[in-house]
Amino acid sequence: MSSTTLSTLLPHGLSSENVLAALHNHDLMIRTLCPSLISYAFESGNPSTQATYIVTDKKPIGQQTTYKLTLTNVASGVNSLVNAKPPVGILTIAGRWRVDNGHLVEDVEIDGNFMMQKMAKGNVEKTHPVQHSLLLQQARA
């Protein structure tokens, strides 16, 4: 299993409450986490607490992919769980998004074969800082 932590300072004047509201907005989270989103559909659960979605988007290599995304609202943020089945094996990406001490902090654990872990971790470290910025911009709106 591979892990990484990303932290982004909240912009001056942006309250933790606004960021928490953005984290709890599943539509906003899906659109932020999937910048090349093609479509998504509610599968099960309750969008105000925990829900699973079927997401189709394009990955950085340009390939279309479909996977399950479960978002669970918690008091300090949201937990995300991606369950994907790419051609080379199963990939699970678990994220814990929290508002902590003036920062948006994301702890990510990646499970899959060695090659998938390495690719996914590189992708997370490259793309998630941009996702943090987009989410914080939306939290201001």
TrEMBL record:
Domain DUF7053: 4-140
A Pfam family the protein falls into: DUF7053
Top-rank taxon: Eukaryota
Official protein name in the record: DUF7053 domain-containing protein
